[in-house]
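FAQ: What does a ligand-bound record look like?

Like this one, built around magnesium ion:
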Amino acid sequence: MASHIKIPPAGARIVPGQPVPDNPIIPFIEGDGIGIDITPVMIKVIDAAVDKAYGGKRKIHWMEVYAGEKSTRIYGPDEWLPQETFAALKEYAVSIKGPMTTPVGGGIRSLNVALRQELDLYQCVRPVRYFKGVPSPLKHPELTDMVIFRENTEDIYAGVEWAAGSEGVHKVVDFLVKEMGVRKIRFPESSGIGIKPVSIEGTERLVRAALQYAVDNDRKSVTIVHKGNIMKFTEGLFRDIGYKVAQEEFGAQPIDGGPWCHFTNPKSGREITVKDSIADAFLQQILLRPAEYDVIATTNLNGDYISDALAAQVGGIGIAPGANISDRYACFEATHGTAPKYAGLDKVNPGSLILSAEMMLRHLGWKEAADLVIKAMEAAIGDKKVTYDFARLMDGADELSCSDFGDAMIARM
Ligand SMILES: NC(=O)C1=CN([C@@H]2O[C@H](COP(=O)(O)OP(=O)(O)OC[C@H]3O[C@@H](n4cnc5c(N)ncnc54)[C@H](OP(=O)(O)O)[C@@H]3O)[C@@H](O)[C@H]2O)C=CC1
Ligand SMILES: O=C(O)CCC(=O)C(=O)O
Ligand SMILES: [Mg+2]
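The answer part, i.e. the structure of the complex:
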């Protein structure tokens, strides 16, 4: 297949484990739907922050790679995720992507999930914090300050499922009924079946990353969120292994006989509490008692729901960033999707993708540029220069387009 990726001549590769060059090549996927609006604005804002912070000494060399609908236009009708895109995301190690469409029911499987699985990006890290002035349904949105660690490669997102009525589902149901003695499938003839794998290794590495994050960032607690009362051998396993990692690898000791436990942060000397919460109760607690939660470690589906719910508490998914991280690669992306009704209107909030890029700058160690992005975001919102999603809930706001919001940020760096 012909190559469509143009490698920027002046840039250098980021090699995991080696110092980040001053001129890194960063692959980006524009994304479907509103990707066309937010991705160029993100690039413009990040370039301005890097230029302002380092006066030309550092510069990102952006390299477009293709996935999703744009890829099918460039490579051919069935080329949703070309092999050379995977290869580039691996070769250049750090990347950023816009959202991609996944049809409901039939059609292609999620390209977003496929990328996470292929690159083994097992941590989905989504910080949720409040920016002063953002409209929120809560009286005290500033009390919400959490970082979600969502397991990103397992659970029902693994895509092991069979459609109702298919030959595959009949075989699976037959096996379950005849060989495993299963009697609890209510309508065996008309069920679709999905499998939920949750492993010890997958849980260990995710919870380890969450605990290490709490240590490195002096956070006060890690809450394991699960539905282990019902799904004992998957969600329940996640909880049990989570506590085991805390005890065996971080020296956590039970509180009042357990299962909650705590350990002293070796870096700050402060206590870190490790606790758990059942997912449904957790969703009401984060609204009513957000200050009691800090770092969250959870399974894939729970993490998906919790991400959007928590984002809403601090103003919505227009301002909800994220990162997908493995031991070798990182691919940054917003929490929201393609919001198709707004595609191409230059209307939506580019904040989520810009803040995802801000996480990327910190990942590179470019703290000064990252700080400028935060300062500019705070200043634009503080001046009530906001996109439609905030403007509709704010008194006296000046509603800006997506691109004008980017420019408003740049003017405030
Ligand atoms: N990582 C990814 O690539 C993801 C992809 N998706 C995919 O995206 C598609 C659409 O999903 P959908 O369920 O509609 O969810 P979306 O997140 O795309 O949009 C839902 C609503 O959220 C608000 N919203 C989303 N993005 C922004 C933004 N940047 N600024 C302001 N408001 C925003 C809008 O609210 P309002 O209408 O109130 O203005 C929008 O209608 C699906 O195919 C889904 O699979 C979904 C999530 C993640
Ligand atoms: O892949 C998708 O289409 C949806 C993914 C999603 O909702 C998420 O990662 O938060
Ligand atoms: Mg989601």
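Follow-up question: can I read anything off the structure? Yes, for example: The chain has three domains: 1-126+321-413, 137-152+198-313, 161-194.
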